[in-house]
Structures are given as structure tokens and as C-alpha cells.
Give the backbone structure.
Amino acid sequence: MRRVIRGFVIAGVALVFALAGGAYWARTELRASLPVINGTVRVRGLQSAVTIERDGLGIPTIRGISRSDVARATGFVHAQDRFFQMDLARRRAAGELSALVGDAALQLDRQIRVHRFRDEARRAVALLAPRDRTVLEAYAAGVNRGLATLDASPFEYLILRQAPQPWKAEDSVLVVLAMFVTLQNPSGEYESTLATMHDVLPPGMFELMAPLGTEWDSPIVGAPFTIPDVPPAEIYNLRRKRNGKPEIDLQKDRTVATSGADDPWAPTRGDAVLGSNSWAVSGDLTGNGRALVANDMHLDIRVPNTWYRAVLEWRDEADASQTRLLAGLTLPGHPTLVTGSNTHVAWGFTNAQVDASDLVLIELDPMDPNRYWTPWGWRAFDRYSETIEVAGGDAVKLDVRWTIWGPVLRADHKGRLRAYAWSAHSAERLASSLLPLESARSIEEALEAANGLGTPAQNMIVADRSGRIGWTIYGTLPRRIGLSGQFPESWADGWRGWNGWLTPNEYPRIIDPAGGRLWTANARVVDGSMLAALGDGNYDVGARAREIRDRLREREQFTAPDMLDIQLDARATFLSRWRDLILRHLNTDTVAGDAARGRFREIVEKDWTGEASPDSAAYLLTRMFRDQVMERVTSFVLADCYEADPSFDYTWIRRREGAIWKLVTDRPTHLLNPRYGSWSDLLTASIDALIQDAMENNSGDLARRKWSDYNVIRFRHPLSGSLPFVSRWLDMPEAKLPGDAFTPRVHWNISGASERMVVSPGNEREGLMHMPTGQSGHPLSPFYGNSHDAWARGEPTPFMPGPTRYTLTLAP
């Protein structure tokens, strides 16, 4: 027994020493991968020395003689602080994630590999103008030098037991393509959803359920679109048609952004969408003659954040006595400034939701399924065998077919093959100006530079030093012939399709608007011929745009803090009519004898603050009531679509609010599910479902339900889910923040404002900027998460970096 005990003791001591040794080794390796922020580092290829001065937040000011030197230094700091993030971005676009993280990413890789973006990125680099290529190659060299200067690989590679691969110029193009994948849809789901509805529903019903706009529209040019009337029973008596047929259960397939899919409180995925806010006021409204631009871009927020703050400074190539300066946000993996100011113009972006893609119906040769009809006759599919490498597993072969219009996607609900024409597939467009706004000195120059770039289409709001403001579309738009692009069509006859790209003079623009105000928030911005040029890529319902427009009209003078105040606005105007509906519905008769319904009404009536407050039970009850009603309505009204197309998902329609509200207020009996005796019964059932859940899961106390319980703000490192013991060390702390998908202050689970910026060109020192998480992706860095608290609290921190605390010199 003594020998056994002695053996256990020895084994225990050995285990302790092994664990301690392992921890010491891991911590040593972790510290070895910290960025270099002081001293001097030799960098081959520099023309002259570059200084990198960091402030207390880790924001670098990069000063050099030439643009290529500054690009090389930008690549250096990006790699040292964010290489793993950059690696994920290029791999996401190339369909190469599985080679790094294993088969967990195989489905994502399969979906994106059909686009063959790696090959396209290579072609784009070969087409770059000489100056742009020099800058991009300098950046790539800087990335590799920054990575090599670390004493150990970034810690994520230690965890994954992988080695980081060198950066190539084409990888920076892939980072741009990753933003296409993030901000647009790589599979044409919106158009596919419209097509199913158009095929299945009578015309009047389609127009109702897929409205061109709603009463919430708040365009800069034009008026709101009206919701069509509900078709009469003679056109679509769905109650009679489906009486006795099985019901459609959306709960079992619903994708949600919060807790389990069986939770009736869980909001639908369709409201958890990416978007942004941006607006500007002219110098006539600021008191000092300087125009102001405000921008907050909404993305899924990870740790670290999407953006990397920086100031870039170099000598003007045309006049060496002048200095060029850019300040704002960069995207790790790319050398240019995304949003910010060049001291002459300042600009911000929102996702434009214009139509930059089309599904093309393929006409197969009945004698040979390997051929399809084109305007020039039968043609064989281009076939590619793509190999997806899988870490820890066998490689997977993927057979990819391409047409002259784009890759072949899955068949539609009628079994028809479709190709996908997408602006992201143009290497020529991707090779357009790499550094478009760096030289712009006026509104006109900025708009001219923005039109036609090979980027996801964005609403660009811009201001110049003279106090003027303007709007246009930043990015590439196709020139359609013979079609609107709303539905899939065959392009085989040559009379329908794309005829190149819009030229800058074909892009809509708004300059110096009456009233001196511009605003965009992913909703429709214009009407008429301007809208026809843009198409409809699934515009937002317009709630945020309406709120921003109304706030801008409340004042005649603005300062930077006034603009930040609008960015932090969590007013729930959009949901107020749903609250009123609850109060009207839960009248004396409906509540009689039912204490729970009475309590429901009491909370909604007395706890309502008019804002999406994290501690509000009234907001949660109202929000979930809306979602319950919408699901009960659409599961029946669109039952024919769900049956015809197993992949049909109505939540792709962002303006569905207008259609559902029309049905709920008009209450047509012929479109009411037979399980309900009246529309009033449907509303009651929606409320009772929420009450029942509270009884089962929350001791029956409806007041304990808070908005923050279901809109949980979690910003996590990509690997923390696989590392539960260190997730608290990697992730940002959970927070209870005001906001929703419909309020200017957007907070929706992992989606939120990836930055908030207010700036006046030439007056950057008085601007404001903050962003979540921090500059560094290294958890031991002082810059890991040190920006987060100010962002969460909405504190107005400076746009420009503070006093220098660290200085690194990159020497030739």
C-alpha cells in the first residue's frame, strides 16, 4: 500500500510539474508572439526610414517618404497585430478555411469555392496599374516582414498546430472579396426567394408580400412607396384552398440569432442583418462652415474588430514640400483607408443593397446535358476540379461548372439549373484603382473616383473642406439590357443580360441637397430613373433611415457630439405601433378572467420607455409579440411557397414588415389560417404562447423577462468556442446595451456598430471615433480590448490619435 501511495504521489508531482512546465512554455510562446512597438527593425525594400508612433490605444501614425514605404509599414503593423484575422479573411473568400481549422469549415468552403476567387484574385493583380501593383506588393512584403519579426507565430497557430502561410499580393484582393461575401449574398437567395413567390402566388398576392417599399421609406429623393391592397377572395382564397391541409411548421427549421430554435421568444434571423448608418450636414448647419460626416458601420463583431485605426502620412509625389495624410479606418489585409478623411474630403459608407447580381436560367442541350445554349450556340460547361484541403482529414474534391455568365448553382424549385452573374466575378473591376479617394480634393473628384470601383456597392456620403456634401454609389454596377434583374431569366438569346458596367456619368449622384442634409441606412435612397439604374438588392424596411432623417430635421445647427447623440439613439419608434396593437387587443373582454393576459398588458403599458432598453420587459414582450404574429401569419399565407420550395425562406425579404402589418390591420378572412376563428384569435394565441413560455421557464413572472436576456451582446474570438477554459480571457465581457436592429443604435446579438465616426475634413482634431474591442489581436497586448469600454458606454473619444507613447522605426 505504501508503494502504491508513493506511486500516486510521484505521479501527482510529475503531473503538477508537467502542467506547470506546459503553462510556462505556453506563456513563453505567447509572449514571444507579441508585436514589436519600440526600437528599430530592418525592413528590406524601404526607400527610407518609416516611423510608427503609437498612442495609448495602440493607434499608429505611420510616417514615410513614399506611398509604397507607408504601405510596406502598414503591412508590417497589420501582420504583427492582426495576422490571424487577415488569414481567416483570405481563406474565407478563397474557400480554404478547412485547411486551417478542419472539417468544421467544410460546408463554408464548399459554398464559396464554386466562385473560384483565388484564381480571380490572381488575374486582378496581373491587371493592376503599375503604381497600384507596386503599393500592393510593398504591402505584402511588409506583412511577411512583420510576421517574420515576431519571435513566435501568433498564438492561434499554436492552438491549431499550424504554421502561418506567407502573404501574397493576391491575398489582399481576396480580403476585398471577403467583404463581397459578407455584405452581399454569394448564392442569390433574395432573388431566388422572389422567384419562388412570383411562380407560386397570384400577381396581386406577390406584390403584397414582396412590396417595393413601405410607409417607413425615407429616401433623400422621392416619397415612400405604398403597400398594395390585399387581393380579394376571388383572386386568392387561401383559407378555402388549404382547409384541411397540414400546417407549415417554421419553428423546426428557423435559424435564430439567440438561444435555441424551439424558443418562441427567439427573434427570427431575418432581423439580424448587416447594415450601417451614415449621414452628413453641410457647413451651413454647423456654425463654423465645416461640413460633418457621421458613420457607423454595422457588422458581426468578432475579437478583434473588423477595422484597424491608423494615420498614414507621406510626401506628396507631385510636390515634395506637401504632406499627404489619411486618418480613419483600415482593413487588415489591405493597404488603403476604408473610411475617414484625407483632410480635403471625408467619407463614410453604408451597404447600398443595390442589385449587383443576377440568377441566369440555363437552357440545357436535350441531347447532351454537358452543353448549354448561348447567344453563339451550344457551348460545353467549363469544368474545374477544386481540391479542398482539410486539416486532420482527407482532402475533398469538388466539381465546379462555369458558364459564360458565372458559376452553376443548385437547381431551383422547378429543377432548373441556374448560373450566378455577380459583380464580384470581374477581375477587371477588382483591378480598378486601389487607392481611389486618397487624392480627391472636392466633392466632384470624390464621387468620380468612387463610381465603378471593384468593391461591394456602398452608399458613400462625402463632405469636402468647403462645407459641401454629396452622395453616390461606391462600387461596380452592371448595365442591364432587356431585363430588370428582379427574377431569374434565360440570357441565351442575347437580348437579355449584362452589357458591361455603368460608367461614372450613369451613376446617380446627389450634390448640395436642399436643406443641407443627407442620410443613408441600407434603405432606398432615390426613386425614378436613379432607382432603375441601381435595382433592388433587398433594401431595408427603412426604420433607421426614418429615425435618422427625423433627428436631423429637429435641429438647425450641429456639432460632432450632436451627431454622436443620433448614433446612440435607441428610440423604438418602429415598434410603437405593435405596442399600441397589444394595448388595443388586450381590452376588457380579452383580459377578462385571465390574470396572465392582464399582467402582460400592464407591463407593456407601464414599463414602456419608448426605447430598446436592455432592462425593459415591455420592449421584449412587444418585440416578441411582433415576431410571433409575423410567423403565424407567414406560415399560412406563404404555405404554398414553403411546400413548392423546400429551401424557401421569407425572412430574406427585409421589407416584409409592410406586408404583415397590412394583413394584421386589414384582417382579410380569406387569408386567415383556419385554426383561428378570427384575426383576434391569432393575436391572442401569439400572446398566450409567450405567457406559456414564461410559465414554464421563468416561474410565470413576465416582468423578469428583459430585452437583454434575449439580445445578449457577445463578442467572441473565433477560437474561444473551442477553448471554453480560456474564453473569458479571449472574449469581451458580455454587456447589456440599448438598441435593436431597428434603432439607430444597432445592437443585435453579435451585430453592432463596428465603429462610430464623426469628422469634418481639415478639422480632424475635433472629430470623434471609437470602436469595439481594440487594435491588437493579441490577448497579452495592452491594446487588446482597451477601446471597448468607451465604445460600449458611447463615450466621445478623439478621432485622431493621442500623445505618442511608443515609437518604432523601420529602417532600410
Q: What stands out?
A: The two ends are 69 Å apart (CA to CA). Residues 13-25, 252-270 have pLDDT under 50 and may be disordered.
